[in-house]
Design goal:
The protein is an alpha/beta fold. The protein has helices at 16-27, 70-76, 113-129, 157-169, 187-198, 216-219, 225-232, 250-254, 262-269, 273-334, 336-341, and strands at 6-8, 11-13, 33-43, 50-56, 63-69, 85-95, 100-110, 147-152, 175-179, 204-211, 238-242, 257-258, 346-349, 352-353, 365-370, 373-378. The protein folds into three domains: 6-111, Nucleic acid-binding proteins (OB fold (Dihydrolipoamide Acetyltransferase, E2P)), CATH 2.40.50; 116-274, Succinyl-CoA synthetase domains (Rossmann fold); 337-378, no CATH class. Helix content is 41%, strand content 26%.
Amino acid sequence: MKVEASLYGDRKVFSVSAFNRGIATWLQRLPTVWVEGEVTELKRHQRWQSVFFTLKDPADGACLGVSMPRGQFDGLRLELADGDHVHAYGRPELYAARGEFRLRALSLERFGLGDHLAALERLKRKLAAEGLFSAERKRALPVLPRTIGLVTGNDAAAKRDVLAGIQTRFPPAHVVVAETYVQGPRAAGAVIEALRRLCEVPELDVVIVARGGGSFEDLLPFSDERLVRAIASCAVPVVSAVGHEQDTPLCDLAADVRASTPTAAARLVVPDLGELHERLDRARSGLERGTRRSLESKVGRLEQAHERLRRAPALLVERRRAGLEHAAGRLRTLSPLATLNRGYAIVRADETIVRSATSVESGERIEVEVGDGRFGAHVE
């Protein structure tokens, strides 16, 4: 909307609305900037589309109003409170309806966060180059751990979530809890010491490092180089359950398995006892069916073998009888009696077979053999 003034003689006069719109339009030409200050008068309401607060300069008390879309503010999860020191990134604007000057924030960072992020990125690249985050060195979790170690804070919700999850899924599980600092400058060293003590527990098979959600600064100890190296060199597999799903401290990258929440860590380290019983029942039924089928098959083969053995002597005798009959038939075929039975005869003279009519004389006694006997005769 074009801003125009009214003429009163030689004087140009702007209405308040026109003046504010003109200033607002001019401010929109300014670049985005970073502004440092202390948060005060933080106001947030579920029905409001924006979050409002004031940035105060601690040096001289100068103040600057700031507004930020509620969705962007909530997405940063900074959990700001009055007194926090921040850097706000945005552009100046004028709320024309009231003539209120303020900074329209596009992003927020706690003071010094950029330095922390840069240092973490350098450390991440360094440890990755050494292979601490490589998939090849990750170890598989045991199916049925004998003893589970849990490193967590005293009376922390994370500890309750892990223990409740394990108890619900696998009541017989044996858990050794090492309570320690999980926030503040002493946390990294305390967690390292807790890991060392747990690794001395007999039959320890896996360790869970658990901490609930928090701000960026709250989770910084779990990106400490000493702790990351301790987790990578731990004697047993480590499950990292630090922060919420969107949080990724460096210990998550060094651990053998990352769990999005402490409750998810419990599901990873122990099986569900009910499901385990069902699998065992199915396996038992399968073994029973397999054994029964194998037994029935062997019984069938045994019965067949028994029947063959029972019939074997008769079959042998029958085969031998058939063989003898075959041999007898052949012998009968080759026997001279078979020839005699067809009407031929054997003639002997003085026990010598007569093969020619000239070999006997008239009146000589001969013996004639036929198929069913023999008789004497004289030659004529």
